[in-house]
Each structure stands twice: as structure tokens, then as C-alpha cells.
Amino acid sequence: MEANRLYTLNRDNLDQVLDIWNEDSSVYVPVGKGRDIQLLPLGEGERTEDYINLTLPVKEMVFEQKEGLFKWCFDGEEMEVEGLAHNHSKNRILFGVRACDTYGIAYTDRFYLGEFPDPNYKSRRDETTIIAVNCLKAGQHCFCTSVGTGVFSTMGHDLALTPFDSHYLVEVDTPRGQELINKAESFFTEIDDSILEEKNDLMARVEESFPLKMDLTNLWDDMAKTFNADFWLDEANACIGCTGCTNVCPTCTCFNVVEENLDENHGQRVRYWDSCQIDHFTRNAEHHNPRDAISRVRYRIYDKLKYIEERFGYKGCSGCGRCTDVCPTYISIIDIIGKIQKAAKENPEPPAIHQITKIRHEIMDREIKSQNGLFSPDVATITRVKQETPDIKRLFMKYDDPDLHKNYEHKGQFFQVTVFGEGEVPLSIPYGPEMTDELVFDFKNVGSVTDKLFQMKEGDKVGLRGPYGRAFPYESLKGRNLIFIGSGVAMAPLRTVIEPVMVNHEDFKQVFVMASALRYEKLLYKEEMIEWAKVPNLTVKYALKDPTDKVDAYSGYVNDLLPDLDLDWSNTTALLCASPERIKKLARDLMDLGMKPTNILVTLETHMRCGAGKCGHCKVGGHYMCVDGPVFNYEEMMALPPEY
User: Fold this and answer.
1) What are phi and psi of 65, to 5 degrees?
2) Does a cis peptide bond (omega within 30 degrees of 0) precede residue 211?
3) What is the DSSP-derived secondary structure letter of residue 219?
4) Is the pTM of this model over 0.85?
5) What is the 3-state secondary structure (H, E, C) of 470-538?
6) Does position 601 have pLDDT exceeding 60, yes or no?
7) Separation between Cα atoms, residue 279 and residue 301, nearest integer Å
8) Among 98, 157, 152, which residue's Cα sits nearest to residue 322?
9) Residue 84 has what pLDDT?
């Protein structure tokens, strides 16, 4: 197909064309008055051309506010999982979409159809045709001209119509758009590109008429200087967490997942739109939450104006102004931009500590090729259960389908483990199928899902998705001194490296495993540590709060033991798993001894709901912990926003 073929369409003939398209597709058109404009099926209301924008972004048609992901059924012996399809009886044509929303669709396509393609989104997007109608006047809070996403549509559409007095200029952008032209070809007149000068003149006049104009050239620099500015407290105090801003945003993609059970043997998992402006959005197990009220409000602004574009190359804000329109406490992204620019001029601080580092992805084929879709688990059966400590258990399990049990790189990665009817939880892998024919998980009883998992027994069914995330770089550790530091269940991801190091100990220099806990009984892998200590170049050291006669243990913090290790710190790598606060304290002490931050490897845990960088819960700055981590080096960790 020739690119960008041009046609004209008499405006009086538009309804006839829509009727033709509606014969084998479902055509949706703008219906309503004032600010209450919806896309409804043709014929369910009077089509209007008198509107600034749709009340909700058009993304609701391809990323539904609530949808099923999979359903499950247990007959007493077999567990069946079935991914849910989301196809409509007819393809849909969405007519009358403004440029800010087509831009939002282009970004959402990039987000959901890029890494780890979302099957639910794809099924609807494949059957949806977008027809943009360029707007000729601005709403009260429109500022698309300032962010460069308007006023006329440049992406995300199949056809773009520009209204003139008696006709539309029709620009074809995709083969799907050309198919629509062909179905009603008698109404369209093909023309050459001489009309584009007339279109550009019209666009210039429309842009000039937009009252809100801002120069955002140096906005990122200004944002770096004002990360801790005083005005953020005022914005946070004004926010009531209603989530209106994120619900009407064309580029918000976050979701949560919940269980809906018919009875104890039948249920489904559904997802629904979620919002980073809810106070528990980033809350982790045991109620730790890295974001306070100021961080939440600031994160939305930084995400829209900086983080999304840094990661995906698309503007995170399309300038539609809807968030300002709907805010009951009059929080305005436009006003905040002004405050950022003003504060940067009045109080030019040095840039904030965090700078976005290069994003690294480690995409694994298995998630994309899973049996029931990206978000549907494969069934596994618990084969053994071991009580490790009073609040930590070890579960051994095997896939019901033996073909799924393959040798994957598990060192530091995690699985999403489903308790059917209760939910899903990310669990680190202590060791994987390269060491045993079972998958093994050590976990602590800290929440509703782990509580149910804690009660499960041999023969019970669970669901597995994974492995996810970036692993420890095992090969690069060879020939170096190694220090492993973990507390309690935090030893689990470190074991994925300790075990192969133990087996291949001649590939490494001095190796230290530093185990810490309040009491000896709280330690994970007590028996294994005795065996590890028998390896010639491997030493196990204990740091306990309470004294014990079980092992020779230091009474105090593990940090105190580091100076006496007598290592060549320039040829040493440390692997840490702990809370961010503890990691920072350990890293500072290690760097004081001469270690480089790039030689300190850490695992960072956050609230993860999908494992594939889609739900948004684990996003820190421009990074998704589930796909960019959980393994980082300390330099990368310190490049994250300070609130982490």
C-alpha cells in the first residue's frame, strides 16, 4: 500500500459512510453534550460533532476497566486452568478520537505489545480501528501543543479526518484504514498532497488559538533540581486519593488483580484499573510502604513528564488536561509545571541524587509461550513440605506437565506462585531444576496468600508463572572473592548462587557466607550451612542478637565482622539480600573498606502483581523491579529515586 494516501469526503455524506462501515463492524461514535461525551454504538444516541474531547480516554475500549484473566476448576484430583479470550462478535471502529487520545493509544500499544505482549490487550487491539477527527478548538485545560502531542493526530490512528467547511481531508495511515476507504470508495475522492499546505495552515491557526502555552525545553533539568521542593507538601496535602486523575489519563496503564470465587472449587482471576495515587499501591508484605503521601503525588508527575518518556520514548502526558478537569481539590499538572520552573529558578539546587541509568531487559521466552497466556499460571503439585523455622516453610513441587520442567537460569530470579482462590505472591527460588528435579521455595508467613500457602500440604495444587527477573551474573563472579550476606528468608535467593559456588569452589577465591538473625532458631539453612562450611575455601560466619551454644556466633551486627575478613577488596564481590535500609548500611561499610559499588550486588523486593512489567506496582522511577531486577548492583540501586 502507498503510504499516506489522501482523500476528501463531503461532510454531508459522513453518516452514509458510517452506516456502510457499520454493516460488518461495530461503529462507535461520540454521543452526549458538554463534557459528558461517550463513544457509543452507532444508533444508540445522536452523534455529535460539538465536543472538545471524550469524557474517558479511548483506551477504555482496548484496556477495559475490569476483565477476567483466567478461570480455574478443581474436581478433587485435577486442577484445570483456562485463559479467558476477549474477542468481540464484530470488529470495532472508534470514530471521532482526538489527537491526545490517539497519542495515548500509540503509547499504550508500545507498552502492552512490546516486551511480554499482553494477550488480553492484543486480542482487543487487533479488532479495533481508530479514526481520528482533528479538533479545531481548545478546552479549558488543554495543553497538547506544549507537550508536542497535538493539535492534529500524528500516530495511533488508522484514518485521520481534518474538518474543513464542506469536507473532510482524509489521511490513510494503515492498511486497515485503506480497507475502510475501499468499502465506501464511491464517497471518497483521492487527491494529491497539495492540500497538505492548506491543512498545515489550518493547524497553525488552531495551535495559535490554544491559550495554554508553556516552554518545557528544560523541564527535566528543572525537575532534577526540585525533587525535594517545599511545594510538593502542599500538593500532597490537597490530594484525597480519589484516583480521578489516573482514571481519565490516556497513558495510565496500571492494574491490580483479585480473585473472584464461585465456590471452593471454581473461580477466576480478574484485573481492574488501579492507581498509583492509592496509599496502598506500593505497600509490601508486613505493611512496609516506600511511598508516603508526598512521594505518591510527586511520582505521578515525574512519571508523566519524565519516567515514561525516558523508558519508552513516548510522552507520558498527552496534554489533554483531563486530570485537571476532574480533580475535586483543583490539583493541576499545569500549575505544578509552573511551580517546578519557578522553584528551579529561585532555588537552583544541585540535581537530585538519582539519575536514570540505562535500562536492561532479560526477556525469557517461557513467559511469552506459556500454555494459558501471560497472566495464567501452569499447575504444579506440592510433593514435600519442610518446616524451616517457626514462620518459614519450604515447599517442594513439580509441574503437572513434565515438559514444563526445564533447566532455566534461576540465580536470583523469582516465580509468581498462585494459591487458587486466594491470590498470587512472588517467591524467590532457593534452587532450581539444575540442582533437583523439583522446584523449591522457602517463604515466610507474612500475608493472606502466604498464610494459605503456609497451611498447604503434600498433594495440594498451586499455580506457577515464571521464572521472572534478572539473575545474578554467575559467570562474572568466577576468580573473585565472594561475600554472601542475608538475614532470615533473605538467604533464599542467595542460595541459588551459593550452591553452584560450593560445587565448583575451585573457580573462586575466598568465599564467606554471613548469616544473621535475632536467634539461631530463626536462621534459614542451618543444616546446609554446616555442609557449606566443609568446603575448603568457604567460611560460614554467624551474627546473632542473642547468644547460642549451637555455633560459634558473634553477638551483634554482621557489619562488625567485615573488616576482619582480610580480603583483597578490589577483587571481591558482595551479594546482599535485606531491606533497602539494611542494604544501604552494609554497602556503605563495604565501600569504606575499598569496594566499588558496581561490585556490590543486591536483590530488591517490591510489591509485584504481574511479574512482567505491566501492572505498575513495582515501578521505581523508570524501572520495573520485576523485569529490570530484582538483581541490581549498588550503583544502579542508588540511581533509583531516594524514596526507595
Assistant:
1) -65, -25
2) no
3) H
4) yes
5) ECCCHHHHCCCEEEEEEEHHHHHHHHHHHHHHHHCHHHCCCEEEEEEECCHHHCCCHHHHHHHCCCCCE
6) yes
7) 16
8) 98
9) 87
Q: How far apart are CA 71 and CA 119, in angstroms?
A: 15
**Cell digits for 304?**
508523566
Cα→Cα distances 76→271, 399, 451, 459, 546, Å: 27, 17, 22, 11, 47
Q: What is the mean pLDDT of residues 484-492?
A: 90
Say yes or no to pLDDT of 244 above 90.
yes
- Residue 549 neighbours by CB distance under 10 Å: 7
- Can you list the alpha helix ranges (DSSP code H) found in 114-191? 119-125, 144-147, 175-183
Cis? peptide before 151, omega within 30° of 0: yes
Domain boundary assignment for the chain: 6-209, 219-346, 365-468, 474-638
3-state SS class at 411: coil
Q: Are 19 and 175 in contact (CB under 8 A)?
A: no
What DSSP character marks residue 563?
A: G
What pLDDT score does 257 carry? 96
Question: Could you give phi then psi for residue 537, rounded to 5 degrees?
Answer: -105, 20
More reliable by pLDDT, 401 or 348 = 401
pLDDT per position as a tens digit, 356-391: 445 444 444 444 445 567 899 999 999 999 999 888
Amino acid at 251: T
Cα-atom radius of gyration of the chain, to the nearest Å?
Answer: 28
Confidence of residue 98 (pLDDT cuts 50, 70, 90): very high
Architecture of domain 365-468: Beta Barrel (2.40)
Q: Which three cell numbers stand for residue 114?
A: 512490546
Q: How far is Cα 502 from Cα 507, in angstroms, rounded to an integer?
A: 10
Task: From 461, 66, 71, 465, select the one nearest 268 (Cα to Cα).
Answer: 71
What's the rounded Cα separation, in Å, for the pair 288 and 270?
25
The whole-angstrom separation of Cα 540 and Cα 530 is 8
Q: Is the pLDDT of residue 598 over 60?
A: yes
> What b-and-e string marks burial along 133-154, b requiring 16 or more CB atoms within 10 Å of the CB?
bbbbebbebbbbbbbebbbbbe
Give the pLDDT mean for 459-484. 94
C-alpha torsion 560→566→570→574, nearest 10: -50
Mean model confidence pLDDT for the chain: 91
Instruction: Tell me the CB-side half-sphere exposure of residue 364, using CA atoms within 13 A.
Output: 25
Terminal C-alpha separation, the chain: 50
Q: Could you tell me the three cell numbers for 392?
A: 518459614
User: Considering the domain 474-638 in this protein, what is its CATH number?
Assistant: 3.40.50.80
Closest CA to 526 of 386, 382, 383, 385: 386
453 pLDDT above the threshold of 90: yes
The helix/strand/coil state of 643 is coil
Going from the C-alpha of 414 to that of each of 75, 275, 439, the distances in angstroms are 29, 25, 11
